[in-house]
Amino acid sequence: MYRLYWLDEHNPRSPFPPAEQAMDEPNGLLAVGGDLSPVRLEQAYRRGIFPWYGPGQPILWWSPDPRCIFRPGWLHVSRRLARRLRTGAFRMSLDTDFTGVISACAAPREDQAGTWIVPEMMHAYEALFELGIAHSVECWDRDGELVGGLYGVALSGAFFGESMFSRRSDASKACMAWLSAQLHRWGFALFDCQVSSPHLRRMGAVDVSRSRFLAQLQQALVLPHRRGPWRFDRDLDPVAIHRQHQTRTAAPEVLYGS
Questions:
Q1: Angle at 195 between CA 74 and CA 63, to 5 degrees
Q2: What is the pLDDT of residues 52-68, one digit of tens each?
Q3: What is the rounded CA–CA span in Å between residue 167 and residue 150?
Q4: What is residue 254's predicted lDDT score, i.e. its pLDDT?
Q5: Are 111 and 49 in contact (CB under 8 A)?
Q6: What is the DSSP letter of 20?
Q7: What is the dihedral of CA 223, 227, 232, 233, to 10 degrees?
Q8: pLDDT tens, residue by residue, 188-220
Q9: How many other C-beta atoms lie within 10 A of the C-beta of residue 9?
Q10: 49-83 b/e with 16+ CB inside 10 Å = b?
Q11: How far apart are CA 104 and CA 21, in angstroms?
């Protein structure tokens, strides 16, 4: 049992404790306090730590065990999703409307009592976007309406997904498929989804131990860094990229282990 660590809110460079010292219950809670400056946030992500808290709470920092991840290019594209992607029902973009995406992610949902994306969090990630570190994927319908999206943070060869939303069937899945394919094309090694869900598992995400995640994160962080704004490659075909990997014998579970 480890004690909860309090961060200095006046010093964004004050160090985090090792992620391995996170509590078992609640799973992954590591530290309290600090700030949401770009310096603090980048330090956290490089150590496998992320902020997550609700209105009226202090800033809470987490590193859960296990960790939910994708390997870029290994996302499962169902036949239905493949048809949707190839019919042109959606137009996809990168880093075109970050504020619109994070605002939609923060909006109340039918299956949730509230939101954890408080105004301070929105401002913090918008600052990271201005620095070219945070990124958004947008899904537009034929009328030009934003119907799905996701946002996250990229450092070297690692992408850390934060949240996504969908106003049309398969819109958030389309965002995941396009982003996974582009990350694969760019040579990214890790697509972090933080905590597992049935939706993510159906798309091919796997749970790995925190120790394995941290080891793979360190390998990803030695790769070149690609600062934003990002754009999708014009010839990108997410269905072809993911189908190519689905025909291989080594599934992500084999590659990653538990």
A1: 115
A2: 999 999 999 999 999 99
A3: 12
A4: 39
A5: no
A6: G
A7: -60
A8: 999 999 999 998 999 999 999 999 999 999 999
A9: 14
A10: bbbbbeeeeebbbbbbbbbbbbbbbbbbbeeebbe
A11: 34
